[in-house]
Amino acid sequence: FKTQYVFLIFYYSSTRKLLNDAIMSNDFLKKLEPQHMREMVDCMYEMVYVEGELIIQEGDAGNHLYVLAEGFLEVLQNGKRLGEIRPGAAFGELAILYNCKRTATVKAVVQSHIWTLDRQTFQAIMMQTTQAKHEEY
Ligand code: CMP
Questions:
Q1: Which residue ranges in the chain fall short of pLDDT 50?
Q2: What is the ipTM of this complex?
């Protein structure tokens, strides 16, 4: 039992580190406040996508922000390959932060484990802290 417990703590803290590092290494998300980042990590949940599945479709309204934990993704625009996404990267931030349509399609090249945060939760986190700041004054 004890060994399992230790592994559980290890798994939990290494996932937190992965999610936090991914947010910190994203050019847009790294501008958020540390408290926002912590709360975002707290509210993320894991999804598994199978090979060939679309995570994001270009032109759609964006309702989630993602971090790739395991697997490999490709980024397409008008059917052309724009780039790739490797574990430890956050993506899907543009539509969430700037309220624009999805700028590209993101597809799982192999089965992939992806941590997700929904827009409502993201917005609630931002509002809470802003409100707390207002109450200080
Ligand atoms: P968003 O526009 O919300 O949805 C598609 C996402 O793909 C976008 O946010 C970025 O996170 C990501 N993306 C766009 N262009 C590239 C690229 N050239 N390389 C890697 N990721 C990209």
A1: none
A2: 0.98
